[in-house]
Design goal:
mainly beta; Immunoglobulin-like; DUF5686; 13-stranded mixed sheet; Carboxypeptidase-like regulatory domain-containing protein; 43% strand; CarboxyPept-like_regulatory; single chain; signal
């Protein structure tokens, strides 16, 4: 999932924020600016608090702040990462200015002049530091572990001030102004809408690369989110890993080159700024900036240990000019410590994401992350099975004593953070916010909880359809949740068509035998209308396309009765094994017939059949992160390593009335990789064979797409059921340049469009025995609908397109290069060229 689950979570919270103030405080107002005492530069996001008073604020990106107090305090405390804490007396007056000048925790040394041939001496230092990176890179340790504390805060701000053209705040801003709030760094109201704290034990090893996070305790408070296990897993250490010794960092689905990675000299310009003391360690202070302003890259400062040339501290910034949606600024501040083993480790990381304005009068969003690692230790690798699953949630993760969080926090919460925790509870209990939260959850999850019944209604996407067979199709679905049982998951639906007046249904039950390792057994019984060439097997997880396929003209429809029993278990090392026994019937509503298999005593032409098959599927995804969402597991995606799937099905003749013995083998590989500044490539390979003689509905039908929408796993210029294969191989490739060209064109750069290319190839054929299995007419003399197969020429389509149009739209121009004059079996001519659109929210 291109990290889809986490993306949907962040986007859903954001959308809620945009639909979600401040009570004016009388008393004392303190304002000013926090600067570096040596350089005079503003210190962004410095923490300002009044001693003895639970009120505080944070400086803006230029170090400016405003703090309002109801009662006078003794002194003002000002803190910033890498600087000594400043203390300033507060005068007994209602309004005053305190400009804080903080001394760096890095003590300045005497001036050092370095002379070198060939340019700035920073390059010599960086070259040697990167040469030694393997010595200090924590990813090179055989194994390590540490205790992790993570805190995430989300705020809505910039909604009460006048917007562009001196217009009043919009209706959303006026609504937000009526909610409880705190005062932000600009003296404006800010609504805290999400705060989480998570404490975990984190383990990692190499050869093979494995990580495991044991989420021990978690607490989440937010608008539109519940303090559930899925959120606890998403807010832990697994998704806050920032190792600048890697060649690139994956942030918000973007590969950003590291200034201390392999592309350091290709992407960045360096300048030696000074030599300073960080604690007791003398360090080179080196500024870096992208060579090309249009590149997606960091700018900032890195501190390199002068004695060992190892990374000591880094302050990296991605500004608005970078092609990241909704982000005005992204900053990462990270401190590295030298372990006893000689390896360096990031012990504290702060990430700040400040959003831009989606529309001229929209509010802004500020999100802060803090990750702290303690008790870091180099260890012996644990057995590979220990790291499975990669994220594990303790059964008592919600239970803590009154002093637990004070013990595990790296430092006490500031006054503003305490106030934010109290205010967020008030905000989420506002009736309007409760309703907005339910609407967003319904849109994202597709299910509506039915309160004390412990069942969910949905998915709403499948509730209605209209087609030529059923007329108006209405469907009602239900499933149980963990309130009903933590072992059983029951689900089902009933559907009815006003035209065919047929009742369809499905009922399933799944029992969780074990959560560690994940082991389930389930059964399903269903009766529904299906269509040849579009099934759950080839549609995959594309629920929108599955819903769309129920609309319009359904060609080659049939009724299917299905009985399914399955068993699934995690075997470790990324392996998941599924075994299933399925019995299904094929009752066509179109002209269909086939000849009985050779050797069958009854050689009467038939038009329906039954099949019993045993299915074995092995899935190997060594890099995939699986999350537990109540009684269902979901994938958070794989980043570096491919996902392999091997599937074998064997038909069992005479078992439960089965008419055929057949074999079907298939294998697939799905992967993506980064090509430096050229962007990222995604590809899928698939191949299979059916060395048996069976009716064509049991052969492989590549997924076509007759809609105006682009479908990622379909052949978008191929009609439904245009080709059939019993031997096949497919290649599907997409390369996204991430704005490599458009970012260099001034008029297009502001649009943040991203160019891409696609290509899809299908090679396959059908054996003569399977071609001969279809008679010219059926038992009543009607002509039988046949099928087409590929010749020696493969099917090929290529495309080019633009995505990120208005941040949500994608447009693809697709050319069909072969079989351009083909007529599908349904008599529909193909279209050699088309423009197709699609849309999703992406960073």
């Amino acid at each position: 999932m291109k990290h889809t689950l986490r993306l949907l979570f962040l986007v859903s919270v954001w959308l809620l924020y945009a639909l979600a103030p401040a009570s004016a405080q009388s008393g004392y107002t303190i304002s000013g600016r926090v600067t570096d005492a040596a350089t005079g530069e503003g210190l962004p996001f410095a923490s300002i608090a009044a001693k003895g008073v639970t009120t505080g604020t944070t400086a803006d990106v230029e170090g400016r702040y405003t703090l309002r107090l109801r009662q006078r305090a003794d002194s003002l405390l000002v803190q910033s990462l890498g600087y000594q804490t400043g203390r300033y007396a507060i005068a007994n007056q209602s309004s005053q200015t305190i400009n804080a000048r903080l001394l760096s925790a890095a003590t300045r040394l005497q001036e050092v002049k370095v002379y070198a041939k060939g340019g700035d001496p920073a390059y010599r230092i960086m070259r040697e530091a990167i040469r030694r990176s393997d010595q200090f890179n924590p990813a090179r340790m055989p194994a390590y572990q540490y205790d992790s504390y993570t805190k995430i805060e989300g705020y809505i701000n910039n909604f009460s001030q006048k917007r562009r053209n001196q217009k009043r705040p919009g209706p959303v801003g006026r609504l937000l102004g009526k909610l409880p709030a705190i005062t932000d760094e600009n003296g404006q109201p800010a609504v805290p809408v999400f705060i989480s704290e998570t404490f975990s034990a984190f383990f990692a090893r190499t050869k093979p690369d494995k990580t495991k996070e044991q989420v021990l305790k978690s607490h989440v408070t937010g608008v539109g989110v519940s303090d559930g296990g899925l959120i606890a897993q998403l807010t832990g250490a697994s998704f806050q890993q920032y190792n600048f010794y890697r060649n690139s960092l994956l942030i918000l689905q973007k590969d950003i080159p590291s200034p201390v990675g392999a592309q350091w000299e290709t992407v960045y310009t360096f300048r030696l700024k000074d030599t300073v003391l960080l604690g007791t360690t003398p360090c080179y202070e080196i500024d870096f900036t992208p060579k090309r302003a249009s590149d997606l890259a960091f700018s900032g400062t890195v501190w390199i240990d002068t004695l060992q040339l190892g990374l000591s501290q880094i302050d990296a910034l991605v500004e608005k000019r970078a092609n990241i949606n909704f982000v005005d600024e992204l900053r990462i501040e990270q401190e590295w410590e030298l372990l006893a083993s000689g390896v360096r480790f990031p012990t504290q990381t702060r990430v700040m994401i400040d959003s831009d304005e989606p529309t001229p009068r929209a509010p802004g969003v500020l999100v802060r992350f803090l990750t702290s690692a303690s008790n870091v230790a180099k260890t012996e690798p644990k057995e590979v099975g220990f790291y499975n699953p990669s994220i594990e949630l303790a059964d008592d993760y919600r239970k803590t004593d009154s002093t637990f969080w004070q013990r595990v926090r790296p430092a006490s919460l500031g006054a503003s953070e305490w106030q934010a925790m109290r205010v967020v509870d008030s905000v989420r209990n506002v009736p309007f916010m409760k309703v907005a939260g339910e609407v967003i959850r319904l849109g994202v999850l597709g299910y509506k909880p039915l309160g004390k019944l412990n069942v969910d209604l949905g998915p709403l996407l499948y509730s209605y359809a209209n087609n030529n067979i059923e007329g108006h199709r209405f469907r009602l679905g239900l499933r149980t949740n963990t309130g009903f049982s933590r072992k059983w998951l029951l689900s089902g639906y009933v559907a009815y068509g006003t035209l065919d007046r047929q009742l369809k249904y499905s009922a399933s039950a799944e029992y969780i035998l074990n959560r560690k390792p994940w082991t389930v057994i389930g059964v399903r019984r269903s009766h529904d209308l299906e269509r040849v060439g579009i099934s759950a097997d080839n549609i995959g997880g594309n629920s929108f396309f599955a819903a769309y396929s129920r609309f319009g003209t359904i060609r080659r429809p049939y009724f299917q009765d299905e009985r399914l029993v399955y068993f699934q278990r995690e075997l470790g090392r990324g392996f998941t094994q599924t075994l299933a026994l399925r019995n299904r019937s094929f009752d066509p509503l179109f002209s269909f017939a086939y000849l009985p298999p050779a050797g069958d005593i009854d050689q009467t032409i038939r038009s329906a059949y039954k099949l019993t098959e045993f299915i074995s599927e092995t899935r190997f995804a060594p890099d995939e992160v699986m999350l537990q969402n109540d009684n269902v597991r979901v994938s958070a995606g794989a980043v570096r390593k491919p996902i392999y799937t091997f599937r074998y099905a064997v038909g069992l003749r005479h078992v439960l009335g089965s008419d055929f013995t057949y074999h079907r083998l298939s294998a697939s590989m799905k992967h993506s990789f980064r090509m430096g500044v050229l962007g990222r490539t995604y590809y899928t390979l698939n191949a299979g064979i059916i060395p048996s003689t069976v009716p064509y509905p049991l052969l492989y039908t590549p997924l076509g797409n007759e809609s105006s929408f682009y479908v990622g796993n379909a052949f978008n210029m191929m009609n439904f059921f245009e080709f059939v294969c019993d031997r096949w191989a497919t290649v599907q490739v997409e390369h996204n340049f991430n704005g490599l060209l458009f970012n260099r064109i001034p008029l297009l750069r502001r649009l943040k469009w991203r160019e891409l290319v696609t290509g899809k190839v299908l090679e396959g054929n059908v054996s003569t025995s399977n071609m001969a299995l279809i008679p010219a007419t059926n038992a009543t003399g009607q002509a039988v609908d046949g099928f087409q197969s590929l010749s020696r020429v493969p099917y090929v389509e290529v495309g080019y397109g633009i995505d990120n149009i208005f941040k949500v739209l994608r447009v693809d121009a697709i050319h069909r290069l072969t079989y351009r004059n083909n007529i599908s079996p349904a008599g529909i001519p193909v279209t050699p060229f088309a423009i197709k659109v699609s849309g999703w929210l992406a960073f």
